[in-house]
Design goal:
The chain has 229 residues and is an alpha/beta fold. It contains 8 helices and 11 strands. Strands 1, 2, 3, 4, 5, 6, 7, 10 and 11 form a 9-stranded mixed sheet that branches. The protein has a two-stranded antiparallel sheet with strand order 8-9. Strand 5, helix 5 and strand 6 form a beta-alpha-beta unit. The chain starts with 17 loop residues before the first helix and ends in a 7-residue tail after the last helix. It comes from Streptomyces omiyaensis. InterPro entries: LigK_PcmE, RraA/RraA-like, RraA/RraA-like_sf. Homotrimer. This is Putative 4-hydroxy-4-methyl-2-oxoglutarate aldolase.
Length: 229
Amino acid sequence: MEHTEIGVVRTKIDRADPAAVAELSGFGVATIHEAMGRAGLMRPYLRPVYPAARMCGTAVTVLLQPGDNWMLHVAAEQIREGDVVVAACTTESEDGFFGELLATSFRARGCAGLVIDGGVRDVADLEGMDFPVFSRAVNAKGTVKATLGSVNVPVVCGNALVRPGDAVVADADGVVVVPRERAAEVAAASAAREANEEGKRAQFRAGRLGLDLYGMRGPLAELGLRYED
């Protein structure tokens, strides 16, 4: 499979349309996931390292080796304004691949954040910088720079396939990946879903029950639900 290729840096990638990515940034992860047909979510163990962390951008992907962060330094050169770095590992590793120094380097390149299926450290500094990171673990254990991985190849991060240039959105609910060629379509579907939910929200505020709004009473009765005084 292509995502297992080792020792390559792809310097030219096709990124999702910037206007579509900007539209996606206005929606929550749950909305985008539902609008995309309940697809694209990473595993829920990828969590923000500080509560207000949120990001949206186009993916620069990194394939790491366990306990080795060399390819994150290599990836920094490929970052363009508005990119997010998405880092997977050839096998499970929770070592502290990333910290404040790399965040400083990434930010200077215009990076909008990091998603990593591994560990990070310097969390207080990351929060102070407001550099959003979503990670598998927080771990002070350091890493080496000894083994080749790859940059800008397809990776599987948190059980989700991420290709270079795909749109990635992350907030308190998790991380979702939008295929780059679907970014505009999914943004439009997210807007429609949000408008529909606002109509329902108004009815809930007025006191209407979900039992009636969603037509649940008939199916519940058919299954034998009964009310007793």
